[in-house]
């Protein structure tokens, strides 16, 4: 009974998500305003400086996110609509967390090895395929991508230690 409540309960309300997103986008807008002002956001003798247009765009983003944040804060006690339940959130995180791992892996061990591991693990644990099939498909996709991009197209992609051992 305790587990059932955990998987069907409300993980986040719409108004809470609205408020958090408004604050994050407001922070991004503030960063744009700050960096634009640092670059120069006024009108120079020869026209607008480098940060002129980004400054006003960042300012517009800050104002809009501020309005949304205030609206969300005012509805915080009364609006009970559900954005996501625990079961739904678990499904999203089942995809999102490995994807973040893949992106981090691209930076650390290169795209080809990361792709092979990502495909292999997804096939094994999400698709319930055998280890052998998962290894073959994951490895084959990465080898094909390597041949296509590195050899045929001569387009370098992020590489890691395995590719360095092969001389690429």
Overall shape: it is flat
Q: Assign a percent range to the helix content.
A: over 70%
Structural class: mainly alpha
Distance N to C terminus: 56 Å
Low-confidence parts, pLDDT < 50 over ≥5 residues? none
Mean pLDDT: 93
Number of strands: 4
| Number of discrete helical segments | 7
Structural domains: how many: 2
Spell the H/E element sequence: HEHEEHEHHHH
Rg of Cα set: 24 Å
Q: Main sheet, how many strands, which sense, barrel?
A: 2 strands, antiparallel
Strand content: 5-15%
In spatial order, strands of the major sheet run: 1-4
Oligomer: single chain
Describe the protein's architecture and organization.
It is a single chain. This protein has seven helices and four strands; from the N terminus they run H-E-H-E-E-H-E-H-H-H-H. It is mainly alpha-helical and 168 residues long. It folds into two domains: 11-84; 86-165, no CATH class. The strands form two sheets. It has a two-stranded antiparallel sheet with strand order 1-4. A two-stranded antiparallel ribbon has the order 2-3. The mean pLDDT is 93. The radius of gyration is 24 Å and the shape is flat.
